[in-house]
Design goal:
The protein has about 220 residues and is mainly alpha-helical. The chain is about 65% helix and about 10% strand. The radius of gyration is 17 Å and the shape is globular.
């Protein structure tokens, strides 16, 4: 998934209104933010294989440190500890960011073919293969994204024009990239995938910036 991950992050603002969407984006996409660096280092591997599934031309050969069930449990715990250390003992907020980190495995296991590793060194992999049904994938992710962004828009309000147009610009950009990846040509090689993957950090920064210009609904601006 792509915008499906962000859908959960947007929607989680309703559960944890004090947490910046930048942090929620960082949590939900941590696996994909870590993965490009591990590709460049040669720790994990991907191949360009058009037709691998109907939705993506990528063959995820090996990515146990960023995407395995065991490691995402570990990363969830790390996120929870760091969030508690930085923001204090806020149980709902800490639980929310930890759940978002692990949600990446759940959503990817639904969409990927059986290439999602359970452990680091084991051979068992799972995946329900939703990506083999392009229309169904598009419908589900789009519905999730619409619902998540609607929840965020209702749960917050803009402090100024930047808060309004910055949010809608972020939403439009995420949707545009999703459709471009879905219907565009495959990337030329794995290096291009890694470089493009690092650009996901821009959305984290963008979300932090948007949060500076929005408030949870019901909170008065100062």
């Amino acid at each position: 998934m792509f915008i499906g991950h962000y859908a959960l992050a947007f929607g989680a603002k309703r559960l944890a209104p004090a947490v910046s969407p930048g942090t929620l984006f960082l949590a939900c996409q941590f696996a994909d933010l870590l993965w490009p660096t591990l590709l460049i280092l040669g720790v994990e591997h991907v191949e360009i294989d058009p037709g691998n599934t109907l939705v993506t031309p990528l063959n995820f050969v090996s990515y146990p440190y960023s995407h395995s069930l065991v490691m995402l449990v570990v990363w969830s715990a790390v996120f929870a500890l760091l969030h508690r250390a930085i923001r204090g003992p806020r149980m709902v907020a800490t639980t929310t960011v930890a759940a978002l980190v692990f949600s990446h495995f759940v959503l990817d296991a639904l969409t990927h073919r059986p290439d999602m590793p359970i452990t680091i060194g084991g051979t068992q992999k799972i995946g329900l293969g939703l990506w083999n049904y392009a229309g169904t994938t598009l419908a589900i992710e789009s519905a999730m994204f619409l619902a998540g962004t609607a929840v965020y828009a209702i749960a917050t309000r803009e402090r100024d024009r930047a808060g309004r147009w910055g949010l809608w610009g972020l939403i439009a950009t995420l949707a545009a990239i999703y459709f471009a990846a879905l219907y565009g040509p495959p990337p030329p090689d794995a290096s291009a995938v890694a470089i493009a993957g690092h650009l996901l950090w821009l959305f984290v920064l963008w979300a932090y910036w948007v949060d500076r210009h929005r408030l949870p609904r019901g909170v008065r601006a100062t």
